[in-house]
Structure to design on (281 residues):
């Protein structure tokens, strides 16, 4: 990955804890940013995590399982997660599929899902094959009252043996209260600009050539002009020289249409509730 950055890191807003009550059945759909690129979704009791990296190194309150110093605390750790219906992974990079968090969530009972290469790694880490399922790009499956479709992503950053067209993905999630799109890590694709009926866009704001970057993140956000936006993939890990860890939502905000009403810079653990959504673009 590219490593070049002379700008001081932006830190995410200070963390709010996620508690056991947030996993209870509810009458709406809520979203919490877990930090990094991770999210928790509770859609009327159907519980989904996407790309959770929520374990610290043993005995440390500052260093996460990946060896990076945290800029903000985690809102919840894997050992505190009471139950899940699904744990979804967009690709293999360890800031998405973390090697300690992944097996630590086996006891939640959730179905592990993602591209085939992801499921192979999950099984290598100890996830039982009966608890994991591989999906193809464009395939749709159900988790409780939620319908999930894998969308295409292009994140072939490696100089040798780069990711193939089925190795990375995003997730388009249809809930009773509206739709949520987690794009995964990706360059901007033509088919991204053909997406519609997105009520909440989980927008990667890191400024890296193998991600959207500022210009294309703005382009996608303005294409989905009726979608609320929740920023992520920034402000979590110390690494001023590592572009994928860096980004600044405020560099996007002035260029996004109606940003004052639809651009949300959440703290890790801060709750967002889908209200009056479901119409889409």
């Amino acid at each position: 990955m590219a490593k070049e950055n002379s700008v001081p890191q932006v830190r995410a807003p200070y963390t709010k804890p996620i508690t056991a009550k947030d996993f209870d059945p509810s009458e709406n759909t809520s979203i919490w940013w877990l930090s990094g690129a991770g999210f928790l979704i509770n859609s009327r009791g159907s519980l989904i995590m996407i790309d959770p990296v929520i374990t610290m190194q043993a005995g440390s309150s500052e260093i996460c399982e990946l060896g990076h110093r945290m800029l903000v605390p985690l809102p919840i750790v894997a050992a505190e997660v009471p139950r899940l219906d699904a744990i979804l992974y967009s690709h293999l990079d360890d800031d998405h599929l973390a090697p300690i968090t992944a097996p630590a969530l086996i006891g939640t009972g959730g179905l592990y899902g993602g591209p085939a290469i992801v499921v192979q790694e999950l099984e290598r880490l100890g996830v039982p094959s009966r608890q994991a399922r591989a999906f193809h790009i464009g395939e749709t499956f159900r988790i409780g009252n939620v319908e999930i479709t894998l969308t295409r992503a292009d994140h072939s950053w490696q100089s040798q043996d780069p990711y193939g067209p089925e190795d990375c993905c995003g997730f388009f999630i249809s809930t009773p209260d509206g739709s949520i799109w987690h794009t995964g890590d990706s360059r901007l694709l033509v088919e991204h600009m053909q997406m519609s009926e997105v009520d909440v866009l989980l927008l990667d704001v890191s400024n890296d050539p193998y991600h959207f970057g500022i210009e294309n993140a703005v382009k996608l956000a303005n294409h989905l002009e009726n979608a609320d936006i929740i920023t992520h993939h920034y402000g979590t890990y110390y690494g001023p020289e590592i572009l994928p860890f860096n980004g600044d939502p405020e560099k996007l905000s002035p260029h996004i249409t109606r940003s004052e009403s639809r651009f949300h810079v959440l703290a890790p653990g801060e709750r967002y509730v889908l209200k009056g959504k479901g119409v889409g673009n």
